[in-house]
């Protein structure tokens, strides 16, 4: 017993939901001031004593979130102390007796804790989605998706207005039809002239306005 002594206490909680986080585990390390006396531990191991006391082993109240995290509740007297007992029979085993147990626990002396588990969504496609991403995550994803869609619809809108809100496109459509007709008649020279005329109109806002005036 000359080496440093360390005592850890682990809770393993299992639940049906949420999917993928059915098992929650957390470990507490007993602070050095709350460790038992080395002589008492040595006596228990030698068989001359059957138990030793550990103070503030783990918190009695804690909350398990939907994401699987364990958070302590800020309450007074939230620590459990007890005796670690070495039992002797056909084989040896350790048992923990809670010396600070509540009267409402029905005289249970073993390790006890009061766990507040967050409400999780029901089973199904929607429930599985909410359990994986949480309501906030689903909400943020929805808002970002809608925002991106609106942004794509409104981006560079000022650049598209001159071409989308034209008063009359009859003359432009006539030029396009002439281009198709020239191509059909294999008049490539005429097609090229009409094509560059159309490009010139679109490049010049003034010409575009002139060609799209309402009659």
UniProtKB/TrEMBL annotation:
GO terms for cellular component: membrane. GO terms for biological process: cellular response to mechanical stimulus; detection of mechanical stimulus; regulation of membrane potential. It comes from the Eukaryota. InterPro entries: Piezo, Piezo_cap_dom. GO terms for molecular function: mechanosensitive monoatomic ion channel activity; monoatomic cation channel activity. Keywords: Membrane, Transmembrane, Transmembrane helix. The chain crosses the membrane at residues 133-150. Residues 3-213 form the Piezo non-specific cation channel cap domain. This is Piezo non-specific cation channel cap domain-containing protein. It comes from Cannabis sativa (Hemp).
């Amino acid at each position: 017993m000359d080496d440093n002594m360390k005592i850890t206490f682990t809770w393993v909680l299992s639940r049906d939901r949420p999917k993928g986080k059915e098992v929650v585990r957390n470990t507490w390390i007993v602070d050095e001031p709350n460790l038992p006396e080395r002589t008492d531990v040595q006596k228990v191991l030698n068989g001359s004593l059957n138990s030793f006391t550990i103070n503030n082993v783990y918190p009695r109240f804690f909350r398990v979130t939907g994401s699987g995290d364990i958070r302590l509740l800020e309450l007074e007297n939230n620590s459990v102390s007890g005796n670690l007992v070495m039992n002797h029979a056909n084989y040896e085993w350790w048992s923990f007796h809670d010396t600070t147990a509540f009267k409402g626990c029905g005289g249970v002396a073993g390790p006890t804790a009061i766990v507040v588990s967050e409400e999780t969504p029901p089973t199904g496609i929607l429930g599985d989605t909410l359990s994986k991403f949480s309501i906030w995550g689903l909400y943020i994803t929805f808002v970002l998706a809608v925002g991106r869609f609106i942004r794509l619809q409104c981006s560079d809108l000022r650049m598209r207005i001159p071409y989308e809100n034209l008063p009359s496109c009859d003359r432009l459509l006539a030029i396009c039809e002439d281009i198709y007709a020239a191509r059909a008649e294999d008049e490539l020279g005429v097609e090229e002239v009409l094509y560059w005329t159309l490009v010139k109109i679109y490049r010049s806002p003034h010409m575009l306005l002139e060609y799209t005036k309402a009659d």
